[in-house]
Amino acid sequence: MKYTLLLIALCIAATALTSGEYSSAYMATGANITTAPTTTHNPNTTTHNTSTTTLTPKTTVTTAIPSPTPPTNMAVGHYNFSLDGKLCVMIELAIGIRVNTSKVNDTFIVQPNKTTVSGECGDKASTIVIGFKEGQFTLKFRNNETIKKVYVEYVDYDLNYAFKTGELNEYSGKNESLELFSVDLGHSYSCKTETLYMGGGVSLDLTHNRFQAFDFKNNEFGPPELCKADIPDYRVAITVGIILVLLIIIVVIAYLINRKRRTDGYQSL
Predict the structure, then answer these.
(1) Would you call 89 exposed, middle or buried from its count of C-beta atoms within 10 A (0-12, 13-18, 19+)?
(2) Phi, psi angle pair for 113, to nearest 5°
(3) Torsion of CA 104, 115, 180, 184, to 10 degrees
(4) Which entry of 34, 36, 42, 171 is 20 to 30 Å from 90 by CA?
């Protein structure tokens, strides 16, 4: 019995020792476990700035495509220029600027109701400028006391016009040192039609013309002096008249001769 109790005690002690080793081993293993630090990741808060773009409509500056104006008939304009109440130049005419080149064969007609008038006034020289949207037309008159004549010594024109759609062209020309439309002082120049060649294939067609500068009476045109083309040519009429008279004379002579022959053929009984 004594040995039995001793054996039981030894078993219990062995069991206790074994349990302690396992417990120590467990504790040792637990001490060697490294716990990784816990990192708290703060979420990146990205703030997106929304750009508000305002689209401004583009203002497109467009230039109108030049195009010819509808054709019109020649229109007579009445133009005059005065200074300090004194009439310096007065004209009546229809103006056509005719272009005849390899690209254009057409005429621009000045519309009197779309014109402005300016100029200069003097005792020896006076100028009138007829302006319109597409250009201008200028006449300068000279009072030449030496020959006692008044005439146009300077003609100028400018035209910026499209005879064909999209083809805007500029034409200009001048003639100087001229003696056009010459008349006596106090008289007016009159002509049905006049053509002035300005060079570069451009001519000025002036019709129903009446010009005067200086020495007006009651602000009216003086006695007209006709251009050569309008002066009646009586030579043809005179020639025809002479021929008719000669024919009549010949017929009368022939009749008298024939009558005399018949009279000579009869003998009295």
Answers:
(1) buried
(2) -75, 0
(3) 160
(4) 171
Q: In whole angstroms, how far apart are CA 147 and each of 112, 144, 150, 183?
A: 34, 6, 9, 11
Beta strands in the chain (DSSP E): 77-83, 86-100, 105-109, 115-120, 125-132, 135-144, 149-164, 167-184, 188-199, 202-213, 224-226
- Given a contact cutoff of 8 angstroms between Cβ atoms, the answer to whether 149 and 182 are in contact is yes
Give the model confidence (pLDDT) of 32-66 as tens digits.
Answer: 434 444 444 444 444 444 444 444 444 444 556 77
Q: Are 90 and 221 in contact (CB under 8 A)?
A: yes
Instruction: Write down the pLDDT at residue 255.
Output: 84
Q: Which residue's structure tokens are 């009445």?
A: 78
Low-confidence ranges of the chain (pLDDT < 70): 1-64, 70-71, 263-269
Plot region of 5 (φ>0 → left; ψ -120 to 50 → alpha; else → beta):
alpha
* The model scores a pTM over 0.90: no
* Residue 59 CA to its chain's centroid (Å): 24
The whole-angstrom separation of Cα 173 and Cα 156 is 6
Encode pLDDT of 79-99 as tens digits: 999 999 899 999 999 999 999
Partners of residue 206 on adjacent β-strands: 95, 194
Question: Cα separation of 106 and 109, whole Å?
Answer: 10
Could you give the 3-state DSSP secondary structure of residue 53? coil
Spatial CB neighbours of 128, under 8 Å, sequence gap ≥ 6: 79, 80, 81, 88, 89, 91, 117, 118, 119, 138, 139, 141
DSSP 114: G
* 266: its two tokens: 């009869």
Other beta carbons within 10 angstroms of residue 171's beta carbon come to 21
Task: Tell me how far apart the 2 most distant CA atoms of the chain are, in Å.
Answer: 240
* Residue 4 identity: T
